[in-house]
Amino acid sequence: MKILSIETSCDETAAAVIEDGRRILSSVIHTQVEEHKLYGGVVPEIASRRHTESICGVTAAALEQAGLTVGETDAVAVTAAPGLIGAVLVGVNFAKGLALAAAKPLIPVHHIRGHVAANYLAHPELEPPFLALIVSGGHSHIVLVRDYCDYTVLGRTTDDAAGEAFDKAARSVGLPYPGGVALDALSHEGNPAAYPLPTPHAEGAFNFSFSGLKTAVINLAHNAAQKGEPLVAADLAASFCSHVSRILWEKTEQAARHFGCDRLVLAGGVSANSWLRRRAEEGCEKNGWQLFMPPLSLTGDNAAMIGAQAYYEYQAGHTAALSLNGLPTMEITEQF
Ligand code: KG4
Ligand code: ZN
What pTM did the predictor assign? Predict the structure, then answer.
C-alpha cells in the first residue's frame, strides 16, 4: 500500500510517499526556519502563509520522486493534530482536496504518533509493545506503546517541553532559534561539570519539569555578569545538555524498570541530541535492553513518519470523512 502523506503542523512543509508503513519511496521537506529565525521563534501567521505557498510544489516533488501520480497512490494521509492550528489546517484542507479529487481514503495522523513511527522506517524489526521517550519542541512524554494505535502516557512534562528548554538555554548563550542543534554542537567543546544546574521537582513518578532550568540559566548569566566573569558558552552548553539528558534518561529508565519494558524507543526533535543518545545507548547496554532511535534525518518534522503511522491507522480502520477538522491540541491516546 502506497500512502501520500502531508505534514504542515509547525514550520516545515513536507510530503512523502511511503510503502506499507516501512519503506520511503520519497520524502521532501521545505523548511521555513530561516524566516522564523528573524523573530526568535515560529510566527504562526507566517508559517500558515508559507505552507500555503509551498504545499503544491512540495507534494508534486514527492510524487515525482516516487515516480507516481496521486491516482497511483492508495490513500492520502495528513497531520491533523496537534500543532499551530493555522498551519495544520493548510495541510488538512490540501489533503482533503487531493483525497476528494483522486477518490482516495483520507487518513488523519497525530503528529506525535508520527514521531514514534519514524522508527518503523529505520528499524524493520521494531514492533510494539515498547516504551517510548518522545521529546520535541512541544512535547515531552514517556509512553507505553502497546500496539501501533494503543498508547498509555506514563509521564509527561508539567510545564515546558524539553525542546523549549534547549531553545531557551541556547538563546541565553546567544544562539539563534531553534538553538537545540547548535547548543549540542557547542557542548562538545565545553566542560559538563562547569555549571551545576538544579533538577526541578515534578509531581508524579515519571513526570518532568523544565521551566525552572530557564531561570537557573538566567541567574547564572546574571551572577557571572555581576562578578565581571564572562559566561563560558561552551561550558554552559555542555552542563545543560549533560543535565537535561540525565533527567530525561533517568525517568525513562525508572519507567522501563517499573513497567518491565526491555525495548526502548526515542522519538522527536530532541532525540537528535548527542548526549541523550549516548546516555540511552549506555543505559540500555547496561540493562540489557534493546534501543531504537531514529536516524538524524528522521528526528525532526517530516512527512515520511506521518505516512508510516498512517499505514497502521488505516489497518485499524481509522480513516476520516471529508468533514475532518484540524486540532491545535490532542492527546496521543485519543483517536480522530
Ligand atoms: O520534533 P520537532 O522537530 O518539532 C516539534 O514537533 O516540536 O522538535 C524540534 C525541537 C526544537 O526545540 C529543537 O531545538 C530541538 O527539537 N532539537 C534539539 C536537537 N535537534 C533538535 N535539541 C537538542 N539537541 C539537538 N541536537
Ligand atoms: Zn514534531
Answer: 0.97
Ligand 2 center–CA 250 separation, angstroms: 23
Locate the DSSP E strands across the chain. 2-7, 12-19, 23-31, 75-81, 106-110, 130-135, 140-147, 150-156, 263-267, 290-292
Distance 271 CA to ligand 1 centre (A): 8
Ligand nearest to the CA of 300: 1
Render pLDDT for 4-39 as a digit per residue (tens, 0 to 9): 999 999 999 999 999 999 999 999 999 999 999 999
Which of ligand 1's atoms lies nearest the C-alpha of 276? 24
Using the mean position of ligand 2's atoms as its centre, give its distance from the Cα of residue 43 in Å: 16
Ligand 1, residue 83: give the atom nearest the CA: 6
> What residues form DSSP beta bridges with 26?
17
> Which residues have CB under 8 Å from 85's CB, separation 6+?
44, 326, 327, 328
Cβ-contact 81, 111 below 8 angstroms: yes
Closest Cα to atom 12 of ligand 1: 163
Among 43, 35, 58, 52, smallest CA distance to 10 is for 43
Query: Which residue's alpha carbon is at the smallest distance from atom 13 of ligand 1?
Result: 180
Say which ligand is closest to the CA of 269: 1
What are 192-240's pLDDT values in tens digits? 999 999 998 999 999 999 999 988 988 888 888 889 888 899 999 999 9
What secondary structure does DSSP assign to 43-110, as a single string?
-HHHHHHHHHHHHHHHHHHHHHHHT--GGGSSEEEEEEESS-HHHHHHHHHHHHHHHHHHT--EEEEE
pLDDT in tens, 286-315: 999 999 999 999 999 999 999 999 999 999
